[in-house]
Design a protein that fits this description.
This protein is an all-beta fold. The protein is built from no helices and 19 strands. Strands 1, 2, 4, 5, 7, 10 and 12 form a seven-stranded antiparallel sheet that branches.
């Protein structure tokens, strides 16, 4: 039997923000989910336990969504996962699964969203897992985080999409991390050379893209980082001083 867990370990120190863990299996209620067109159901097969969120996508109901709402970010990376399954509408054996699922997050309470997953729904799926890590720095401290899962029907599709077993985890910011106000970067946006102010001589820098993939690692030289080889886009720079303290900051490469 699934358990509905919602715990926020609050232990704020000068530079310490509590770990956030939330999960929802819909065994008791909808929890923090606002369901624009999905509904909680026990009558259909789900991935875990007895209940899940379900939506029938067909010509008369082509789109639908559900939104997790929300918690206040502590500024660290967020691990998101949930399970999903599909099957064709049972009353008509010739109906097919034909649609798309979108996974998005918001850091402004739902005004704008960033896509982190587009999944083709073109077959019966017994149970699959979606997981994604939103890098630190992409969801700033105190941002109003939301997650939205939506679907759409394509062509002649007539099928059910079931969502289940959502989990959210955001780690703790250690007291040893550097204050962003202590170390600054400029210019931003940057063309070729990024400067790092107030950094130690032996500072290490790592550059990752928004998917978390590391692009570059180098030791800071004369308080500058050569970014000539980077393609245009948005990146995260992790600045690590000689004592192992670190900070993450976002920048745009022209």
């Amino acid at each position: 039997m699934k358990k509905v867990l919602c715990s926020l370990a609050v232990g704020f120190a000068a530079l310490s923000f509590g770990q956030i863990n939330k999960s929802q299996g819909f065994e008791v209620d909808n929890g923090d989910f606002a369901n624009a067109s999905f509904f909680r159901s026990k009558t259909t097969p789900v991935c875990e336990g007895s209940y899940g969120l379900i939506r029938n996508f067909w010509s008369g109901g082509k789109t639908g969504s559900t939104t997790f709402s929300s918690f206040s970010s502590n500024g660290q990376s967020i691990d998101v996962s949930f399970k999903y399954r599909t099957y064709n509408f049972p009353a008509q054996s010739n109906n097919v699964v034909d649609g798309t699922m979108f996974v998005e997050y918001s850091i402004d309470g739902g005004t704008t969203y960033t896509n982190i997953g587009t999944i083709a729904l073109n077959q019966i799926i017994t149970c699959a897992n979606f997981s994604y890590t939103i890098p630190a720095g992409e969801v700033p401290q105190n941002a109003a985080f939301k997650l939205r899962v939506s679907g759409q029907q394509l062509n002649s599709g007539d099928f059910y999409l079931i969502l289940d077993d959502f989990k959210f985890s955001q780690g703790t910011l250690a007291t040893s991390d550097i204050k962003k106000s202590d170390v600054t970067i400029y210019p931003n946006p940057v063309k070729d050379i990024l400067y790092v102010n107030n950094a130690d001589a032996k500072t290490l820098v790592k550059i990752t893209d928004l998917s978390g993939r590391q692009i570059k690692e180098t030791q800071l030289l004369d308080n500058r980082v050569n970014l000539t080889e980077l393609k245009s886009g948005t990146y995260i720079i992790t600045i690590i001083d000689k004592n192992g303290k670190s900070t993450n900051q976002k920048f745009v490469k022209k």
